[in-house]
Amino acid sequence: MQRASRVLAVFLAAGLSLAACGGDERPRKTAGGQGRTSGGPAPPTAPPTPTGPEPTSCPDGGQLIKAVEIPAVHSDPVRIPEATISGQKIPAATIPGVDIPAQHIPAQCVEHKPAPGGCLGAITIPGVTIPPVTLPGVTIPGVKAPGIDVSPVTRSEVSRLAVTRLSVTRLEVCQSKPSEEGQYVSSVYRAALYRSALYRSALYRTAVYRPRACNDAGECIPSVSVPGVSVPGVSVPGVSVPGATLKAYTAGPGQVIKGEDSIAYDIKADVLFDFGKADIKPAAAAELTKIAESIGKEVPGDAPIQVDGHTDAKGDTASNQTLSERRAQAIVDWLATKGGIDRSRLKATGYGESKPAHPNTKPGGSDDPAGRAKNRRVVISATR
């Protein structure tokens, strides 16, 4: 087995249900289980309004989408001096300039949803919007004086609407869980994801000109020119996330699963936890020691290690979620304090009953204790 691109997944078949698991005193949930979802794209959604600080880096080394700066636009006002025509005063006027503040499209992170061992988590490229922009209209006033009749000259405002790309998502994909030795588990593929580039085109308000005009007495008003104003185009590059694959493998003897670049252990470990508890039993030390030693041999020393807790579907959802989190954290604490693994590499995640490996009920809807037992597990995984 090659050390590069390695996955270690350890399935600890611990009793991750609550105190009433296996008993009849707690209400049962309705039949049904979660299927393996496909990796197709989810429907696009509108970009959310940004909240909180803008990211400078993304969790777990994730992909950072850089911010885009849109420069300010400025033009000076134009002053028309006072004039006197045949004793009639033509008042001075000021044509306002243009001041459009700089605009900022914040940096973003590609979101990678956590996923249990044997799954590729959902990914989302968030939506993005280039804001709208408007150049205000402008008018050079007309003049009516003895011997002079000049009409006003106007340019209307011009605008560019906001340009938006909606968020795009690939859903989680999971391999099937082997139930016996020699079972072939096929590969799964999460397709690449792409948010296309977007562009807000340039904007231009043309120059405005009022010519000089004179009467028969040789009295004149000056020409007036308001320069054109332009707003440059804005481009936001496309964002891509490459596809990912979990390779096929065959379940080996003793529930040891070996693939071309993977190894997994399915250990019957009811001794890990007491009934409805999250404290690791002393008797579990031998099994956990073997796992820690295997991680040391099989996993690169700088690879992050994920510990996932799962329950069956007995009991209420919130309690199952809490128990899965506590038991995953208990394994993290043991590996850090007694297994010789740097705590900074370890991350605990609880999935409760949301990621069943097998149905919790039989086809007719009756309880399936054997299926539920397979769902009570802790998965330790590492990739590089």
Per the principal axes of the C-alpha atoms, what is the gross shape? rod-shaped
Strand runs, count: 44
Mean pLDDT: 80
Low-confidence runs:
1-39
Instruction: Classify the beta-strand content into a percent band.
Output: 35-45%
Largest sheet: 8 strands, mixed
Task: Describe it.
It is a single chain. With 384 residues, the protein is mainly β. The chain has three helices and 44 strands. The strands form 18 sheets. An eight-stranded mixed sheet has the order 26-39-40-41-1-44-42-43. The radius of gyration is 34 Å and the shape is rod-shaped. The model is unreliable at 1-39 (pLDDT under 50).
Tags for this entry?
disordered N terminus, 384 residues, 3 helices, 8-stranded mixed sheet, 11% helix
List the helices and strands and how they pair.
Elements: E1 7-13, E2 41-45, E3 64-65, E4 68-70, E5 73-75, E6 78-80, E7 83-85, E8 88-90, E9 93-95, E10 98-100, E11 103-105, E12 108-109, E13 111-112, E14 119-120, E15 123-125, E16 128-130, E17 133-135, E18 138-140, E19 143-145, E20 148-150, E21 153-155, E22 158-160, E23 163-165, E24 167-170, E25 173-174, E26 184-185, E27 188-190, E28 193-195, E29 198-200, E30 203-205, E31 208-210, E32 213-214, E33 220-221, E34 224-226, E35 229-231, E36 234-236, E37 239-241, E38 244-246, E39 249-251, E40 256-259, E41 262-268, H1 285-298, E42 305-310, H2 317-337, E43 346-350, H3 369-375, E44 377-383
Parallel strand pairs: 1-41, 42-43
Antiparallel strand pairs: 1-44, 2-24, 3-12, 4-11, 5-10, 6-9, 7-8, 13-15, 14-25, 15-24, 16-23, 17-22, 18-21, 19-20, 26-39, 27-38, 28-37, 29-36, 30-35, 31-34, 32-33, 39-40, 40-41, 42-44
